Amino acid sequence: MKYSVNGLKLGLALGAVALISSGVILAQQGKPAVFKVGVVTALSGDNAQGGATTKRGYDLWANKVNSLGGIVSDGKKYKVELVYYDDQSSGATAAAACERMLTEQKFDFILGPYASSATRACGPIVDKYKVPMITGSAENPAIWKDKYKFVFGTIPSVDIIGAAPIREIAKGNPKPQTMYIVGLDDPFAKAGADTFKKLAEQLGIKVLGLDIVPADADFTPVFSKARQANADILAMATQPEQGIQMMKVVKQLRINAKAFVQHTAPGFADFTAALGKDAEGVIGATVWQPDIEYKFINAGAWKSSKEWFADYQKAYDRPTAEYTEAGCSAAGIVFEVAIKAAKVKPGMNEADRARLVSELEKVNVRTFYGPISFPTSGDNYHDNIKLQPLPFQIQNGRPVIIGAKSPQKARLIYPTPAWDKR
Amino acid sequence: MNLFLQSSIDGLLIGGVLIVLSLGMSLAFGVMRIVDFAVGEWLMLGAFTAFFLNTSLGIDPLLTTPIVFVIFALIGFFLQPLIERVSSGKRAHANLMGLVLTFGISQVIRGASLGLFGKDNHSLSSALTDFTWFFGPLVVPGARVVTFACGLVLTLGFLFFLYRTPLGLRVRMVSQDKASASLLGVDSSRINSLVYALHVGLTAVAGVFIGLLFTFSPEIGARYALYTFFVVVLGGMGYLPGAIVAALVLGLVQSYVTAFLDSRYISLASFIILYLVLVISPKGILRRGLV
Prior knowledge:
The structure holds 2 protein chains of 2 kinds. Chain A is of the alpha/beta class. Chain A is built from 14 helices and 15 strands. Chain A has a 6-stranded mixed beta sheet, with helices on both faces. The longest helix of chain A is centred in the N-terminal third of the chain and has 29 residues, at 2-30. Chain B is mainly α. Chain B has 11 helices and 2 strands. In chain B, strand 1 (132-135) and strand 2 form a beta hairpin.
């Protein structure tokens, strides 16, 4: 009798397992196909804040596409599913995360990291596994000189963007004669510092010093040197966090340069929030802002920057958006366009992905973020350089585009008022 | 010459903040024999507390330091028995267990802070520090002077407590020989709680200073934990005067390397000094630390 009770229990248990298993299998069979998208970016570590900008941009795109039924391919709609991998703000970890991502799971395509170092580390890996990746963030020109077949970018490199503020300041009256440059010791910022130096020399501005500093250093000694040099332009190539720290030190030391330039920190909302009136007058560069509107938009669900920004504010309740966030949403749009043209379905094989890359190379669209296409030769291989870099200046607590292309017709305030006259 | 003098000022002033940061940790190790991996997170939480007190109640960040100290000293006081329970007794590798526990605490605080505060950078700004002194070509920023002065006052107060009060005497007794102190009627558990409370409170106050001088986000903990470990080890584990000297040495090394060499060599120079000191004097820079 005891045996039969145990047997009954065992039978019931096995039956339950079988029922659940069959249910799971049926559920999986019935589950609609989705494009599985791997995203490797900085979710922790020094670049976590930058990583958060990429995540906001990618998520906004995925949510928008899914709310409209998904990506259209060969007459059908397929939703997208983003799976995040944390690169921990390290190039080496990014490479490991990319390798793990592509060996553990099957992804149709990848949305790339925030940092240039991480993007460059992922390049050889996505090429090895032949999975296309678009970054909406990385700006180091070296990425594109490496010519990775499967890597694309929606943002022009820093040597293009970073030049815009220097060109604008060079028009100042009196014309600036000297410049001091401080750059962070990371690939992106060093490329930015190089850009400042080359352009200054081209424009006849004498470079009095160039210091490369580690991100975790106290910047006071280096800015003490800069103060003693007394240059007309103090140019800083930084990441967002260090951009704020640098301006705090500049204020503490009362450095009264005629112009303060930073790439890329001033475009981030926390720059003005953290510095308050001490952010006034700082000059930066961008390729997009919420009040820039492009005409003849023919790709993506957003038909204007205003529409994108409305969705952005609804989702995140933030006062302003940074161009990286828009660039990341645009990266998703470009995949949409290429998938539609390649007529590929979720669960792509190697041939499908090769076709997708081929279509990406043919992309020539206008999005809310601006025109996008990818050169197939030269130093800007696969990097979208169609966007126009625009200088901006923090005026009345917000970044305002200055110069001839300014939607608000704003002008450069130059020289910047001294600290005791603000 | 001007650059040398300016670098010396910069180095000494930043050393003042490092002193506050490392004092509590040095004492906590001296008494509890525990390396607190959560030191960076206490600092980060101190900065955030000052930030919220400033934005919600309008209290100047510098004036929040007593409140921050009390809040975090209480947290430390009530948390310490848990750490003691894990890191003492007859369990195997008790000290290692304590180390793992504080590491776990740091991870929990960091994760929760990322969720609560987000990933944006923040900064503190005090009207009381918004001045700069000029001595010819030399510049002395008010924020640095004030934080250095506060650090100095805290350090002196701390040393006074330790070396001139009966309670301080009991703390030193427990630090030197816990068993003998217990035989003499000193409640070592209560002393441990008090020391950990001081450590957490002081570290949180150092966080306010860091927020005034730099930026902060939930991710900054590891960076400042590294500085703290460096100072505490260089100064001699558990030896407070050594930590003070080591903090000033680290500040000056950072400053001189940046001014006269290349700031990319700061870590290299700092760790060469640390290794040399440890090889020549394993008890730290003043040869009085615990080995």
